From TrEMBL:
Residues 3-170 form the Flavodoxin-like domain. SUPFAM superfamilies: Flavoproteins (SSF52218). It comes from the Bacteria. InterPro entries: Flavodoxin/NO_synth (IPR008254), Flavoprotein-like_sf (IPR029039). This is Flavodoxin-like domain-containing protein.
Amino acid sequence: MSIAVIYESMFGNTRKIALAIAEGLAPFGMVSTANVNDPRARKAAHSANLLVLGGPTHVHGMSRPSSRQEALTWSSDPRKDLELEPLAPGTGVREWLRDTELIPPLSAAFDTRVDIAHLLSGAACGHIQHALAKRGSREVIAPESLLVTKDNILGVGELARARDWGTSVGRAMERFRDR
Ligand SMILES: Cc1cc2nc3c(=O)[nH]c(=O)nc-3n(C[C@H](O)[C@H](O)[C@H](O)COP(=O)(O)O)c2cc1C
């Protein structure tokens, strides 16, 4: 099976989570991982059986040009101590999904968000899965949020949880394949 793990990330948290998910998926097929602003992302999606797509939660949902602009502003505030990802300026998951011609038949969605009550944080992952379904892709497993602190630092144990979730995605994908 060919698996594409595609992510958006302004400050690196979602990139690290995506790489950990890819590790968990490694026993289940050929895994390619790419940022939405890397041309390889589209190529990987076009040839994949399964797309695992994720991004940061911005304003309770998927990022928009305005929220990514806000993130750029945060990164130039020395008090926040945030380093911008080299591939950060550009498109987001929402636009990438809209502009990618071929979306794999199977998918799973994830996000990163702040570790506070879901009612307060919102979560991008459900919106991403909904957008994938609108493109005709079937979810193999429920969307998942991985958590960061209010200071934008990955929570303790979240990389391990991401690896385990990747393994669960792989197992779920196999159940779909065997049907
Ligand atoms: C403009 C902006 C808006 C955000 N809005 C939310 C939000 O509504 N809920 C939330 O839980 N986190 C929110 N966050 C925090 C990010 O989801 C979180 O820091 C994420 O891990 C960043 O991922 P990244 O490092 O891959 O960019 C927001 C961050 C930014 C920059």
